[in-house]
Amino acid sequence: xxxxxxxxxxxxxxxxxxxxxxxxxxxxxxxxxxxxxxxxxxxxxxxxxxxxxxxxxxxxxxxxxxxxxxxxxxxxxxxxxxxxxxxxxxxxxxxxxxxxxxxxxxxxxxxxxxxxxxxxxxxxxxxxxxxxxxxxxxxxxxxxxxxxxxxxxxxxxxxxxxxxxxxxxxxxxxxxxxxxxxxxxxxxxxxxxxxxxxxxxxxxxxxxxxxxxxxxxxxxxxxxxxxxxxxxxxxxxxxxxxxxxxxxxxxxxxxxxxxxxxxxxxxxxx
Length: 270
Prior knowledge:
Blueprint: E1 11-14, H1 20-31, E2 35-40, H2 43-55, E3 63-67, H3 73-86, E4 92-95, H4 114-129, H5 131-135, E5 141-145, H6 168-182, E6 190-195, H7 214-225, E7 236-238, E8 241-243, H8 252-267
Parallel strand pairs: 1-2, 1-4, 2-3, 4-5, 5-6, 6-7
Antiparallel strand pairs: 7-8
Helix pairs in contact: 1-7, 3-4, 4-6, 4-8
């Protein structure tokens, strides 16, 4: 009689892992026996997230906490440096952290519209700052937790900070389109983006009045983290199905243009 072979434990960093889909993703990965690096925006919410994971049975020795406020790019850099020092090999990065664009346009200390920075620029910077650990691990993956609203969006190339015409829906959708496009950048690792479904999280008001449990969305994210799941590099997944992304996201010139813009915006903070 044969027994199932447990998957080899890996090291996975999940951003925005204190609540919602991010926390559930961390929980499911911990259940697999992976070392999970839990990102929190502050120490208190991070300690609480770790305590709740341990309460579900997660092995405290396989949980790591890192703290960075993604509205401050210097903190993103510092966090990346710590992760790279402590984990020279990284199997998976889940770019999940996100905020809803506020009713009134809000600018970070770095000079960026807040949802564009937290939802996209921070993920872009973190991924690039972790090039060493991701490149050191054959078959490494980056999973960008995006959204179906990217289909309604456009990148305001002449006004990416939405200074002239601000709409919270347009700003949020732009950040999700940027994250989806970013998954198509050429890199030593495999990147994908995923709409995990409309779930009962803080972002629900952007979509509907009710949604799936966050654990259901997390299952769709974790599936793409699994090396046993074959994925299309640069692919966009709607829940569990490979789906066509917005046409603009498929244009190589758009990928290059977005990365050039992101390079300029994150370079301002060095």
